[in-house]
Specification:
Elements: H1 2-16, H2 23-34, H3 39-45, H4 52-70, H5 72-92, E1 95-106, E2 110-115, E3 121-126, H6 133-137, E4 146-158, E5 163-174
Antiparallel strand pairs: 1-2, 1-4, 2-3, 4-5
Helix pairs in contact: 1-2, 1-4, 4-5
């Protein structure tokens, strides 16, 4: 049954004629292939069209294993595009500053203040978990310590000014 699904999914992805196949395109092809199965066949493989999202993961994993044997070039095209995207993300996030830790302020967001080499105070917001966040959670950083802050510049809407403002979002901290 999974072999039949894999063959149909391979045909669908090839018919799209895309140089690189996205996860979304692959997922749509798997759903399209599931539609050709009878209700009895769907039940046998553990797929319930009434609960698509709950039952698709196991089916997709088995279809993927079969596809790896039938049309391995599909996966080769997927992995290439994912590696390129990861490299692009790494380039964007490689902004950092070395300075002296000054303070942490809690308002709408937690803001960490760093004094750079030119004695200017720089603000960095803490929105999501990041490498090194436990240094602040466990209070292991003291005022005056040298610190390296990796960040990315983000624009967020500020209702006070009714405009978008640029913020430096922390992605990593190193002592």
């Amino acid at each position: 049954m999974f072999k039949k699904l894999a063959e149909s999914t391979c045909e669908c992805t090839k018919a799209k004629g895309e140089a690189t196949i996205s996860d979304i395109s692959l997922g749509l092809c798997i759903f399209q292939s599931l539609d050709i199965l009878t209700p009895k066949e769907q039940k046998v493989i553990g797929y319930n069209p009434e609960k698509k999202m709950e039952t698709i993961e196991g089916v997709a994993k088995n279809v993927g294993l079969e596809m790896a044997l039938i049309c391995p070039e599909i996966f080769a095209n997927m992995s290439d595009s994912e590696e390129e995207a990861t490299e692009e993300e790494a380039d964007v996030e490689d902004t950092f500053i070395v300075g002296t830790y000054d303070s942490m302020v809690s308002n709408e967001f937690v803001t960490i203040k760093i004094i750079d080499e030119n004695k200017a105070v720089k603000d960095f917001i803490w929105l999501f978990p990041f490498d090194g966040d436990t240094l602040f959670i466990k209070k292991k950083v003291d005022k005056g310590e040298k610190i390296e802050v990796h960040y990315r510049e983000q624009e967020f809407f500020d209702p006070k000014t009714n405009s978008y403002q640029k913020y430096n979002e922390i992605t990593e901290i190193k002592l």
